[in-house]
Amino acid sequence: MRRFSESYLRRTRRGMWADSRAALADFDLDGRTRILDVGCGTGEFTRVLAEESDARVVGVDADLELLSVADEHPDIEAVAGDATGLPFADGSFDLVVCQALLVNLPDPAAAISEFARVSSDLVATVEPDNAAVGVDSTVESEVSLEKRVREAFLHGVSTDVALGDRVPAFFDSAGLDIVGTRRYHHQKLTEPPYDEDDVRSAAQKATGEGLDRHERDLRRGLDESYESVRRQWRQMGREVVRQMKSEEYRRAEVVPFDVTTGQV
Ligand SMILES: C[S@@+](CC[C@H](N)C(=O)[O-])C[C@H]1O[C@@H](n2cnc3c(N)ncnc32)[C@H](O)[C@@H]1O
C-alpha cells in the first residue's frame, strides 16, 4: 500500500474546498444521514463532509497513524479497514465517498463495487487527474523539471494515477447509475509568509528526499539516469531555498479533481 505522511496531506490539501464547494452539489449533503469517507487519511475531506451535513460521518483508512489524526476531530468516527473489504453491513450508509483513493489502488473497480455494497443510496469519488497538473514558479527550472518528473512518474507507477474520465466506467460495472460528473480545480499557492510545510517541502527538494520517495517508480519511467535528474532536482531545490530566504519565491499549482456521483 502506498504510504502518505501527515505533513504531505496537510500541505497538498491546504485550501482545498475552501474557495467553492459547488462541485459537491450532487452529494446532496443536506439530505444525508450516514456518510462514509473511504481512505480518509488524516480526515482532510472528512471534515468538509462533517461541516456541510448533519450526518453521522465515519472515516475509514488502512493506515492507523493517519487515522489517529482524523479521530481527533469530535465529529468524525474513525474506523480501521480496507477499501476492498469494508467492515460494514450492506446498505449501512446513504453516501459512500472517497477522495484521492482510487488512484492509489491496484484494483479501483473492486473498491467501487464494495462502496456500492455498503451504500443504500449514493456513491461518489473525487479523484485527481495527475496528467493535467499545471505548475508555475519563480524558479524557472522547477517548471520543466517537475514536468519531466511527473511524466516519468505517470509512466513508471504501478497504479493508474490519472483516471480522469474513466471513473464512470467503474460505476457502470458496479451497477451504479451516474448522477453527475463535475471538475474541481484545486489551486495551491506558495508565497510569503511561508509556513512550516512550505519550508519542509523546499528542504526536501534541496536534499532530494522528496524525489527519493518515488525512486523505484521514477527509475522505471525515466529515459535518462535517475542520478542525473536527482542532481538537477537538488540544484533546483537549493535555488528554491535561496529565493525563500529573500522572500522572492512564489509557486502556483493547479490540480484538477474529477467528481463522479452515482446512485445504487
Ligand atoms: C492520497 S491519500 C488521501 C487521503 C484523504 N482522502 C485526502 O484526500 O486527504 C490516500 C489514502 O488512502 C489510504 N489507502 C490506500 N490504500 C487503502 C486501502 N486499500 N484501504 C483503505 N485505505 C487505503 C492511504 O492510507 C491514504 O490515507
From TrEMBL:
GO molecular function: methyltransferase activity
Domain Methyltransferase type, residue spans: 36-118
Keyword vocabulary terms for this entry: Methyltransferase, Transferase
Region (Disordered): 191-216
EC class name: transferase
Protein EC: 2.1.1.-
InterPro entries cross-referenced by the UniProt entry: Methyltransf_11, SAM-dependent_MTases_sf
Gene Ontology terms: biological process: methylation
Pfam families for this protein: Methyltransf_11 (PF08241)
PANTHER family, A to Z: 2-METHOXY-6-POLYPRENYL-1,4-BENZOQUINOL METHYLASE, MITOCHONDRIAL, METHYLTRANSFERASE
Record's protein name: Class I SAM-dependent methyltransferase
